[in-house]
């Protein structure tokens, strides 16, 4: 059985360090795990009127389907002004719509981030609060907080310390996925 993980980059930047974290995760994914990386740059800004009057725009529906079909999310966020970037919050807002049927509802998720000196710690604290609303099952440890600079070489994550943290983060995410599917299986009977 394949476990499908949806990687969500919080940065739209071409040479994004957070995209490099996701590339490292794709490369190191354990056997049986596939990580697809979503694009959130083409999602319009969330507008309740659009949702009510026209439904979900095409790019939004595509993203919501990707989230719904994934067994888990792997979010890589930069820190912008002590928080998460607007496009990431916007993507989460779109995926949070639908009440108990919202695509992100109770989804297992793991967080990591590359930013300045503190490696996105404040952004990840905010992100945890945001994800509480949809009852996501967020991995608590390890915290993967990567300061930019010489942890990257030619745009790729080369620090063995942080690569190892990502391996452990993926293992922790898989543990939550297994627990969640056992819980849901027990509820169904
Ligand atoms: C608008 C803006 C605000 C930022 N604010 C912070 C910040 O509050 N804390 C921090 O550590 N880095 C901050 N940074 C630096 C980014 O987190 C850092 O450049 C990161 O590598 C960007 O992610 P990316 O490489 O994936 O594009 C900021 C960058 C920008 C563009």
The average pLDDT score comes to 97
CATH superfamily: Flavodoxin domain
List the secondary-structure elements in sequence, H or E. Answer: EHEHHEHEHEEEEH
Q: In the CATH hierarchy, what is the class?
A: Alpha Beta
Largest β-sheet summary: 6 strands, parallel
Overall 3D shape:
globular
Number of discrete domains: 1
Topology-level CATH name: Rossmann fold
CATH-level-2 architecture? 3-Layer(aba) Sandwich
Strand content: 15-25%
Structure overview:
The chain is an alpha/beta fold and 189 residues long. The protein has one domain (3-188): Rossmann fold, CATH 3.40.50.360. The chain is 43% helix and 19% strand. It is built from 6 helices and 8 strands; from the N terminus they run βαβααβαβαββββα. It has helices at 17-28, 48-54, 58-69, 86-95, 121-132, 160-188; strands at residues 3-9, 33-37, 72-76, 108-115, 137-138, 144-147, 152-153, 156-157. Strands 1, 2, 3, 4, 5 and 6 form a 6-stranded parallel beta sheet that branches. Strands 7-8 form a two-stranded antiparallel ribbon. Strand 7 and strand 8 (156-157) form a beta hairpin. Helix 1 (17-28) packs across helix 6. The protein is globular and about 50 Å long. The relative contact order is 0.18. The mean pLDDT is 97. It binds flavin mononucleotide. Residues 11, 13, 16-18, 78-82, 114-116, 118, 148 line the site of flavin mononucleotide.
């Amino acid at each position: 059985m394949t476990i499908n993980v949806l990687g969500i980059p919080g940065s739209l930047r071409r040479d994004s360090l957070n995209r490099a974290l996701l590339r490292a995760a794709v490369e190191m994914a354990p056997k049986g795990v596939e990580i697809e990386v979503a694009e959130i740059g083409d999602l319009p800004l969330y507008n309740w009127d659009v949702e009510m009057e026209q439904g979900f725009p095409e790019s939004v529906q595509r993203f919501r389907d990707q989230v719904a079909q994934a067994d888990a999310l792997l979010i890589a966020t930069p820190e912008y002004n002590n928080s998460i970037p607007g496009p990431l919050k916007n993507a989460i807002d779109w995926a949070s719509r639908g009440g108990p049927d919202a695509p992100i509802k109770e989804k297992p998720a793991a967080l990591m981030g590359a930013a300045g000196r503190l490696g996105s710690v404040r952004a990840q604290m905010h992100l945890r609060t945001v994800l509480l609303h949809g009852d996501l099952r967020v991995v608590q440890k390890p915290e993967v907080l990567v300061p930019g600079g010489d942890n990257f070489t030619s745009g790729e994550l080369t620090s063995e310390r942080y690569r190892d943290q990502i391996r452990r983060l993926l293992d922790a995410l898989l543990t939550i996925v297994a627990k969640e599917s056992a819980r849901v299986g027990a509820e169904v009977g």
